[in-house]
Amino acid sequence: RYCVSGRLTTSSDVFSFGVVLLEIVTGEPPILPTHVHIVQRVKEKVIMGNIETIVDPRLHRQYDFSSIWKVVDMALLCTRESSSERPTMSMVVSHLKDALELEEARASASTISQVGSNADLSISWVASGR
């Protein structure tokens, strides 16, 4: 947005932060050789409704889908054309904390599940006399 207006504002900072969020989620640069900006690319994929086409494949689906949707949604709010429609950074932080809580709950549940699976394997190993 600075390139368009030539002015740095709180609102342009929010826009830039939204772009950074999209870069983190997608693992892509803001502009590709096709000259399509990351905001437009993500918006097109959101319309399809499939989060897996947006998220960096290097994450191997190891994330909470609701958490990722919250981050993408917030990033798109940050990058709205009209600066008056963008959230404040305190709103962004609040939403990102919510997304983090979802991700931490998923990670915790995954760890508990792995520990339970390992315990079951150990018990069956001992029970079979190995």
Automatic annotation (TrEMBL):
Residue ranges annotated for the Serine-threonine/tyrosine-protein kinase catalytic domain, each copy included: 6-96
TM spans (from-to): none
Pfam families in alphabetical order: PK_Tyr_Ser-Thr
A molecular function GO annotation: protein kinase activity
Highest rank taxon of the organism: Eukaryota
Protein name (database record): Serine-threonine/tyrosine-protein kinase catalytic domain-containing protein
